[in-house]
Amino acid sequence: MKEMRPTTGKVVLALFNILGPLKGKSFLDLFSGTGQIALNAYKRGASPVCLVESERKRFCDIVKNMPEDVKCHCMDVRRAMSKFEKNGESFDIIYADPPYELGWGAELPKLLHKHSGILSPGGTFIFEHSEKEAADDIEGWEREERAYGGTVLTFYRRSVDQ
Question: Which range of residues forms the domain containing residue 103?
Answer without folding.
Answer: 27-135
